[in-house]
Each structure stands twice: as structure tokens, then as C-alpha cells.
Amino acid sequence: MSAVKESVKQVSESKPKVKRKSPPILNRILDFLSSVKFGVVLLCILVILSVVGMVVIQQNVNGFDAYYVGLTPAEKKVFAALGFFDIYHSWYYNLLLLVLSLNIVLASIDRFPSAWSYISKPKLTATKNWLIRQTQNTTLSTQLSNDEGIAERISKVFKKNGLKSKITENNGVLYVFGESGKWNRMGAYIVHVALLTLFLGHFVALQTGFDADVNFMPGQTTNKIQLIEFNLDQQNRYAVALPFTITCTDVQQKLIDPNGSIETFNTLDWRTRIRIDDPEYGVTEADVSLNNPFSYRGYRFFQAQTVPIGNARTMTLELTPQEGDSKPISVNLARNGSTKLDDGTLIEYESFLPDFTFNQEGNPDTKSGDYNNPVAVLQVTPKDGEKTRVFAFAGNIADNIPVGAPKVGYKWKLKEFEKAPLAHVLSIKYDPYEGAFIAWYFGGIGLMAALVFVFFISHKRVWAMIEKDEFNDKYDVILGGDTNRNHTAFEDKFKRIEKDIAKNTN
């Protein structure tokens, strides 16, 4: 070994090795919690758990009883232990939401200053080498000898192509900077706010609200709701008083085929009209339909299901007088309604039976919920006469059959009727702070709008450096540009700008 190598080796060995200090553990924890990768992993886990919640029928969903009975003992035990039957209320699901919310907040705090700098302190100048290194760049020669005139023309070209422009001088060199869509840099943070709003609304509704349901028939009045407590296949219900009274005034089922059944497959919409009598706020009328829930004082009313026993919302009666040659009379009658004939006869609705029969006690009843033998049961009171029960059948009934015999001077027939179920079941969700309402409307709509804003709008920037040619009195224009997304469209725009500048500076 030579003396030089030996001396170098001794010097290198004599130098103490410097150990790089690792960041404090708190900083490492915060960096981990705010990392994008960690947030994406949490979001993927939440999506997987949400899919599990859709595949495994939840215990507060109709039909859970039958689903639970069909599971094997092992499936029941494992799913119950993992909380799959009520996954959206499980401790780990809410913990994941909390940690993901923390990740979003920390990531926003960590990255917001750099994103905001694009808006508050845009880069107005750049070196020639920096511009040439941009994805889109070119150098144009001009025939003009006035750099200020060139800058003005470039500025007009930028404005023509949708870019806000600004002329800046630095070290005797003129620059023209143009940009559009700079607020797109804030799109990610709008998404963050929308997600946090959804999470907060879910948490508030979970902690302060409850679910209940109410069976409503027209004319029914109640000031109580049935709260539901779920424990796997056991449902415990108990009544809770409301601060107001609810009256059902009408139920309606819009059918695809008015002559068909009232099953779900033949239904366009369910509507329940209610009246709320509130000692504090007065009377409020509401129409609750399938896609139009109603909100009142923190109570949200939804269509849940129907009681699929056939009934009639409105009906048309045909009355044939038994004396004289008078023509049949057509009478319209609403459910729970009444009407009066010209001769003073009062007709009142009593009930509607879709499949008429008599039960063991001899009272009118229905064999099924289908419209096999529909009849309207009426209470008819002639002027200065006694009230009589009358049966108006849809089919033709012989006069010698007691229920079909003429009564009160008329032969009665049910000519037409609008089909409707016996009752509707409204689901009531109570959220005193309306956290779910905020989440659904502001969070949901905000999230969709933010995603459109993020992916369909881009931040485009173009710089023009006006440099004097070393060999003559003319000027060269060095163009450079970039965008944060949709690079293909930006390439087309950059070529148009290049073409327009070449045309306007020669």
C-alpha cells in the first residue's frame, strides 16, 4: 500500500462517525397519522366493512328474522362476535371513522400551506432553464423590437384562451404569466370538509337519535311512537310520547297498472298525508312519499312499508232507484268520507273488504288481502229514517241474496275504486341536532360537487419569458406551461396559445 493511501485510510478511520438523529417519536406518529397512504388504507377498510353491512342483513332491517333463522349456528356465533349484524354501530367502525377523520384533519393542516401558496403567491417569473424543463415548452422568434409591445400581445393571447394574465419585470426581463382554475388546488380540502361533515352527522345522529315506526291508517291519530330496540332476532318495542299529535289524513299508492295488484313490483310511489297538531307551533300539513321524506323538529318521516291488505282510497257507487223509471245515480265517496243525495239520504263510509266473506261470528270479513270479491260497506241514513248497513259489491249480486238485496230504495253497486293498501308504516328517525340532515344535504351534495370540481377542472399555468436575441434587435419568447391534471387537453390549449403568439408577434 502506498504512503498516500495509508495516510488517507488513517484520516478516514480517525474521523468519528456521525449518527443522524431520528425525528422525535411524536413527530413520527403525526407523520404516520397524516400520511395519504394511511388514509387510503383506512378508507379501503371502511368500504370493505360497508360492503359487509350490505351483504349481511342488519338486525334493524325488515326481514332480518327470516335471514337469521336461515344461518348455521357457526355463522350466527361468528357474525355476532364480529358485530356484523349491526356493523354501522360497532365500536371498531366508529373508531375507524374517528381515526380517518383525524387523518384528514392532520393531512389538511400539513399540506394546506403549500396548496394555498398557489393562490396567495403565484409564481410569476421563472428562469429559462426551468421553462424549458416543463412538460409543455417551446421557443418562438419574433419580428418585433419592442418587448413591452410583445408582452401586451402575449397577454391578449392568454386572455383570449381563458387565462388571467399578468405582466412582471425581473432583472430587466419581462414575463407574462397566465393561469386559470387556480381554486382547483383547494378542491381536495373541500372534499375533506364534505367527508368530515358526513362523519360528524353520522356520529351525532348515532349518539343522540333513535329509530321508530308508526302504522298509519286514514283517520288514525296518535301522539306516541313505537321505539325499537334490537337484540339479534329479538325486537323490543315500547311507546314514547311525542310533543305533538299526528293524524293520518290519506294514504295513496301510485300503481304502474291501475288494474293490477298493489304489490311492490307494480308500484311507482307510496304517499302518506299527515297533519301535525303542535301546541307550540300550530298545525302543519305534510306529504311523505317514497323519495320525499319530511322533517319536523328533528323528526324525519320516511316511507318504510305498507300493510298489503287491499283497500280503496276513493270509490264510485252506482245507485239504481227501485221506484219509477229513474236512471242510475253515480256517487263519489272517499275513504272515511260521506256524501248526501238530493233526497237527503246520507251515505257514510264504514269499511272496505277486498275479498268479502262472513266470519264465524257472522260479521263481514275478508278472506285475503287480494281484490277477489271487493265490497264497500256503507252506513246509509235516509231523511227522517234509521241508519242501515249497505253492501256495495263490485260484482253482480242477485237481489234475492240478503247482502245484495236493494236497501233504502236503491240497488247498490261498487262501480269503480282507486286501489290503496290498508295502512302505511312510516319510519321515524329522531335527530335533535339534525346532524343526519346536515350530513345528507350539505355533506353529500358538497362531496359530489367537490369531486366534480376536482376532476373536471384543472389549474393551468403558462409563462412567457421575453428574451432579447444576442445577434440582432429582435426578441425570443420562451414559453413553458403545466397543469395538475387533464394533460391531454392542456397540450391542445398550449399549442393554440403557441400558434396565436406566433401569429401576433410576426
The shape, in one word, is: elongated
Task: Give the structural class.
Answer: alpha+beta
Q: How many strands, which pairing sense, and closed or not: the largest β-sheet?
A: 9 strands, antiparallel
Binned, the helix content reads 25-40%
The figure for the number of domains is: 5
DSSP summary: helix tally: 11
Q: List low-confidence stretches.
A: none
Beta-strand proportion:
35-45%
Radius of gyration, in Å, reads 38 Å
* Overall pLDDT score: 87
Q: Report how far the terminal alpha carbons are from each other.
A: 69 Å
Number of DSSP strand runs = 20
Could you give a short description of this structure?
Helix content is 33%, strand content 36%. The protein has helices at residues 3-14, 25-33, 36-55, 64-69, 73-82, 91-120, 128-132, 147-160, 187-208, 435-456, 487-504; strands at residues 136-141, 164-170, 173-180, 210-216, 221-231, 234-255, 267-278, 282-289, 294-296, 299-321, 329-334, 338-340, 346-353, 356-358, 364-366, 375-381, 388-393, 410-430, 460-468, 475-483.
Highlighted features:
single chain; alpha+beta; 5-stranded antiparallel sheet; 11 helices
What does this structure look like?
- This protein is 33% helix and 36% strand.
- The chain has 506 residues and is an alpha+beta fold.
- The chain has five domains: 22-108, no CATH class; 122-181 and 458-504, 2-Layer Sandwich (TATA-Binding Protein), CATH 3.30.310.80; 183-204 and 435-456; 205-309 and 424-434, no CATH class; 311-418, no CATH class.
- Helix 3 (36-55) crosses helix 6 (91-120).
- The protein starts with a helix and ends with a helix.
